[in-house]
């Protein structure tokens, strides 16, 4: 491999990594958290207690709730609980023209639960590709550019640093620039297959938006393309006379039989209680690696399966599996933790890469006390992105516990709290000397995380002690993860404070060796 | 359980690969191994990684074994680096 190629790859790596690095950091962080989105939602909806013994019982309870609450509705939809979710969500479309759709959340006993208004873990999942305060279409283009930059940075990084595998077993801590280099190297190599997979499959999830040409070449518009790709269940006509509905338990049993025992995710019942009732049952997306789950349709009165339209071909199945591998909905607890661990290494890879950019350039500054504008900005944005987002996420969880129940647009205010704290941290970083801003914002994040289990214990009956006593491992794990994050941020703050005290200690020879050996 | 076995075997594989590199031999053994010995360690390392894949496919999951394998490789690599770092801390390997 020629030297000029490696040098140009090094520059490519530096700048693709830097330009949208802060966005990549946020995407990696919230995307990693999204692997536990249902568990986070459970923690953020502490009012929901109990759990139905199985899906059939949950479905029967939901149907009887809907029969009492919305008997004449045009349609009912039931999102069932599963291994990870305890809530049953019921929605119904009133028969009156133009009436808005209604939603209720049921607890494990099938009773309507007075749940605080929150977007839960679902917000973190949506944010990692839809962002916030931006039109979704723009956000997704931005996210796509960031993901593409990530792919370029990964490949160019591998070409540039051909010694990454040889240096892989070396971790020299506390040695200034070389430590940042090693940390970036080691976190990148640890889960390199995962990074390549997650970035590539992430682009696949939105490929139709980024590359609509295939669809547009064969269809009048993308709407027609999607309508054929993801057909909606047919609508049925109401007969206008009442009929005894088929028991939902029997329908679920037949569906499971046709799916080798797979669980169900949602049930939609059109014209419930009518002779023309129709039941559509969608398979759980957690039951196979592929994420495009099929739907079975049943006659709502006889309970017999209706003819199903054939769906998808080879490309459809490949896309379904690629997206499925990205989202990891199929993953067991063990594999899910490995997803999260790999994601955390992704966070660390982007974070150490960003910090390395400044560490490498600081020694070359004519006067480190008065850096040029670019350096100044990167350093401050690093603090805002790395420490500020951490603080913001902790604030999101705190807001969930502290905002009053009746607050209008409460769920949206939880999200505002995340961005207010994130923004304030960034502002703080812009105003303070960088060496001070690092430990200060990191310590603030540590305090916020440490406050989460405390506030949870004080404001709900589901604090750490009672969760331990009840064997509620989701709540126990959530609180412990908060404590762990507090410890990580606190030790990072301590290291940063120690660094802030003396001047940079990097030996010039070390820097020179790295600069020639590895480029930008 | 089978997952832990796959992780341990992957970690052993990474340690073999580490031992096959001249630079790390200086650190670990304070001498260079012969070419043949280095090559043997290298082969053993890759064979162990392959063995971890075989365990994941045969004993963990035929359909998802490859995905488990990548996860187990990552955890095994972390374990291997942690072992080296602990030895370094203990003073057995010069920094």
Major pleated sheet of chain A: 6 strands, antiparallel
- List the quaternary state of the chains: heterodimer
DSSP helical segment count of chain B: 4
Neighbour order of strands in the largest sheet of chain A = 3-2-1-4-5-6
Low-confidence stretches of chain A: 503-520
User: How do the helices and strands follow one another from N- to C-terminus of chain A?
Assistant: HHHHEEEHHHHHHHHHEEEHHHHHHHH
Based on CA inertia axes, which overall geometry of chain B fits?
flat
The strand count of chain A comes to 6
Category from helices, strands and their pairing of chain A: alpha+beta
Helix content of chain A: 55-70%
Terminal Cα separation of chain A, in Å?
18 Å
Shape of chain A: globular
Describe this structure in words.
The complex is a heterodimer of chains A (520) and B (95). Helices cover 61% and strands 7% of the residues of chain A. Chain A has 520 residues and is of the alpha+beta class. In chain A, a hairpin with a 7-residue loop joins β4 and β5. In chain A, 41% of the residues are buried. Chain B is mainly α and 95 residues long. Chain B is built from four helices and no strands. In chain B, α1 packs antiparallel against α3 (35-60), α1 (2-19) crosses α4 (65-89) and α3 crosses α4. The longest helix of chain B is centred in the middle third of the chain and has 26 residues, at 35-60. The N and C termini of chain B lie far apart (35 Å).
